[in-house]
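Annex B. Sample input.
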Amino acid sequence: MSGNEFILEITGLLVNYGAISAVNEINLNIRQGEIVSLIGTNGSGKTSTLRSISGIVKASAGQIRFQGQDITRLEPHQIVKLGISHVPEGRGIFPDLTVVENLKVGAYVRKGRNEVKGDMLEVFRLFPRLEERKKQLAGTMSGGEQQMLAIGRALMAKPQLLLLDEPSMGLAPIVVREIFKAIRRIHNDGVSVLLVEQNTSMALAVAHRGYVMETGNITLHGTAEELKHNDLIRSVYLGIH
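Annex B, continued. Sample output.
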């Protein structure tokens, strides 16, 4: 796939929860090898967008295509098999399983034990702290370590597209820097990333392009550089007046 072709194409996506419209006929795309940030305040529809891509929430209308294939109606496990992994807001790790057991769960769609072992070593290279804690129960680890584990678990499925929902939420600045360094390394390994992140300056520092969502609509999109210099973004999201 060439650099200009889209790995993900969303057209006219509508997500309703009963009578409430969470996502209002948006269009969004990601090229192979891009990091794209989705910016917006709480309740603007960012999480619903990610959940619809990964099949957790079904679209009410519109189409989601991944590598040219329509995935709008597929089940979450089928979408993981195709190459999309989702790190949800709140991490969603299994607290009563060890680090290694959590990582193995992430590889459930895959065959080949040796490959899985090799991938676990890759995760430990990315997050050395997880190797130190590998026999520890996930529920007893710090928030930052749990976030690393959630990302590591998603990588065990060998995704081509990684969906990250608020990876820095509730974490100390030093840990946030570590997480974002890891996002850059994951991208350098050839994984495309769709990043939902409240920390707008970090999100734009790591992204190639960005979309801004307000009340279910995409109101602005452009390169990360363009968005950094946009007056609205500077005043509302970056706190620069």
